[in-house]
Amino acid sequence: MTLFTDDDRPETPVEGERVAPSRRVIAGWVSIGVAVVLALVLALVPAPFVIEQPGPVYNTLGTDQAVGSQPSADAKQLITIPSRTTYPTAGSLDLLTVSVVGNPDQRPSWFDIVGAWFDPSRAVQPIDEVFPPGTTTEQSNAANAALMVDSQQDAIAAALNELGYRFPQNVEVKQLITGSPAAKVLKTGDEITSVNGTTVTSVAELRSAVTANGAGKPAEIGIVRDGAASTVEITPEKMQGQVVLGIGAGMEYSFPFDVNIQLNNVGGPSAGQMFALGIIDKLTPGKLNGGKKVAGTGTIDNTGTIGPIGGIRQKMFAARDSGGASYFLAPASNCDEVTGHVPSGLHVFAVNTLADSLAVLKAVSSGSSTTGLPTCPAS
Which of these, 308, 176, 325, 188, lies nearest to 246 by C-alpha position? Predict the structure, then answer.
């Protein structure tokens, strides 16, 4: 019986003759080759991103060692107040940090980036947002170290103001921007006391008053220079969407006693709130947190206003997983990043001021209901 015609009869290979692989085999090898190349690209080619992930956790009531690290004989108390009576504390008031994987000198691979995208505790950020173009890693670290020093001073001021201490605290011109409206009028070291007759006692109040004045309209700025008070006229201008005088303003304090904060190799201003709470707990009888584990984040100024920070999602995971906290104090201005991303088992409260945070701690400490306390909106 004939199974094939002459046209479709399969050819029998001649001995020693090479047989061409089928299209399916070729396609398979091509796919494998493409996969290998992609894997090499993901593993070796640097990406224009960095990865933010939970960093070390520090208990402001404890030592300068990270929570969970191996105990060291060199550990020092994170907050000390040598000339004042301090009181026993318990539990924790944790400050959180974010570790950044990658920098302009050593960027993560695409393989690392892909892995981070699928991890809710990590975030992928464009490298230019974390390290502005033209800024070296060393310059960025130095700037963050300076912000940490300023935040510690602001935290001390906020805590002492909350406790009723009175001391000199002035808004001062720290830097003048060349060509700005203020450059020909003000000098570094000038104290700014008012804007259009309204007293300013913090950098935030100065910014608010200048914004209210608006750009293109002269503002009457009260200053003190070399002990002499005067009023000068400066016309603010708009720069990068903000109304500015063109100065770098900061606070100058004369504290009634020393408060020492020992924390190395951590930068940025986001620990301000927790520093302030740690100082208050040490200077007042009783346990501010009721001996429970509480964590939080947020900038703070001398008036006790709590401001937004970066990396709050990573900090919430660090609070729960590394610090073992059940309660978290988040700046209300960060609620858009908190909503829908709270790790299970963590109770997050939205706070605008130091007084808000103290109200939360009072409820937590007493074991009373926290139902009426402010939280971020549910997703």
Answer: 176
Which pTM does this prediction carry?
0.84
189/226 Cα distance (integer angstroms): 9
28 three-class SS: helix
Task: State how far the alpha carbon of 88 is from the alpha carbons of 64, 159, 258, 288, in Å.
Answer: 17, 17, 19, 10
CB 346 within 8 A of CB 328: yes
Q: Strand 347-351 vs strand 327-331: parallel, antiparallel, or unpaired?
A: parallel
Using one digit for the tens of pLDDT, what is the confidence trace for 83-112? 999 999 999 999 999 999 998 888 888 888
Tell me which H or E stretch contains 95.
Answer: strand 92-101
- Residue 321: partners with Cβ closer than 8 Å, 6 or more residues away: 54, 121, 343
What are residue 176's DSSP bridge partners?
Answer: 247
Contacts of 77 (CB under 8 A, 6+ apart): 62, 63, 64, 262
